[in-house]
Amino acid sequence: MKALRVINVLLVTTSALFVFLTSAFLFLGSREAYELMVENLLYYFSGRFLSFAYVGLVLTLIIGVVNLLVALVLRQEKKSALQVALKSLALFTCCALVGTIIFFSK
Question: Is 27:34 a contact under the CB 8 Å cutoff?
């Protein structure tokens, strides 16, 4: 069971770091496109945040399904799999929000 906990920590940490770094630093446009995004801040901020929050949701579903399958195979409580999924979803959403704030504060 400790091995599963270590794997969960590694998966959630690397996934949260991925969501944070991509939402904060990934931009493939020009300087003019960035300035246009800053001019229409509310629209682009919400779109960018929701997009990366959705990436976090997909990663949460993957982690949750893996935990649920392990719980079913090892005949353990499914409650812990749900707790890991909910905590990781909250963490990914916070990472997407902070990353988006950093992106628009450059």
Answer: yes
pLDDT digits (tens, 9 = 90+) for 21-62: 999 999 999 999 999 999 999 999 999 999 999 999 999 999
9, two tokens: 């920590």
- Smallest CA-to-CA distance from 48 within 33, 62, 63, 64 is with 33
d(CA 2, CA 105): 40
CA dist., res. 91 & res. 95, Å (int) = 6
pTM listed for this prediction: 0.91
**Residues with Cβ within 8 Å of residue 100, at least 6 apart in sequence:** 23, 24, 45, 48, 49, 52
pLDDT band at residue 104 using 50, 70 and 90 as cut-offs: very high
